[in-house]
């Protein structure tokens, strides 16, 4: 009886690894978005990373965000074109980029990346060439959603969202757009 109760409370692997990604994100000092990423091969955790300034450089908490504005022409589902304004903090290296910098290509071959947030276009491009086979994310990033999904389809990387996932209460942050 006690064994089945423990088994029932046991988290599935997606929840387990996404919880770890959220815990890793708590190391970020960016005011706009805390992002964590983990690299998993089978059920083995191979690496973790979060978004932040390069080592030895003032971070967003110390020096403030360094905002860059970009404009992009996008076509909506009705075929209409519109200009979309994007703001990005360029002081930080994204969690996915740090994960790629601090893990070996041989470990990434066929691995899964769990990331708290859907990758942006730049990170998606880097992940597409990294050797991974799957990306699992929780929070959407609508600014790049369509083109990132299309890219993942083109390169054959499984790309899925954990829509019903609930992050640990002490690890989640409100996102500033």
UniProtKB/TrEMBL annotation:
The keyword Metal-binding applies. One of its GO terms (cellular component) is cytoplasm. GO terms for molecular function: dCMP deaminase activity; zinc ion binding. InterPro entries: APOBEC/CMP_deaminase_Zn-bd, CMP_dCMP_dom, Cytidine_deaminase-like, dCMP_deaminase, dCMP_deaminase-rel, Deoxycytidylate_deaminase_dom. Coiled coil: none annotated. Residues 12-162 form the CMP/dCMP-type deaminase domain. GO terms for biological process: pyrimidine nucleotide metabolic process. Its cofactor is Zn(2+). Zn(2+) binds at residues 94, 120, 123. The keyword Protease does not apply. The active site is at 96 (proton donor). Keywords: Hydrolase, Metal-binding, Zinc. Belongs to the cytidine and deoxycytidylate deaminase family. This is CMP/dCMP-type deaminase domain-containing protein. It comes from Paenibacillus montaniterrae.
């Amino acid at each position: 009886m006690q064994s089945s109760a423990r088994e029932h409370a046991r988290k599935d692997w997606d929840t387990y690894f996404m919880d770890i990604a959220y815990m890793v994100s708590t190391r970020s000092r960016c005011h706009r978005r805390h992002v964590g990423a983990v690299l998993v091969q089978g059920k083995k955790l191979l690496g973790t990373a979060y978004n932040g300034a390069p080592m030895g450089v003032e971070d967003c908490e110390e020096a403030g965000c360094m905002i860059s504005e970009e404009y992009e022409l996008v076509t909506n589902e009705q075929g209409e074109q519109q200009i979309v304004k994007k703001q990005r903090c360029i002081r930080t290296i994204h969690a996915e980029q740090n994960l790629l910098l601090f893990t070996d290509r041989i470990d990434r071959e066929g691995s899964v990346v769990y990331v708290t947030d859907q990758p942006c276009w730049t990170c998606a491009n880097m992940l597409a060439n990294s050797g991974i086979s799957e990306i699992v994310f929780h929070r959407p990033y609508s600014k790049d959603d369509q083109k990132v999904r299309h890219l993942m389809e083109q390169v054959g990387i499984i790309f899925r969202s954990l829509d019903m996932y609930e992050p640990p209460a002490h690890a989640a942050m409100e996102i500033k757009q």
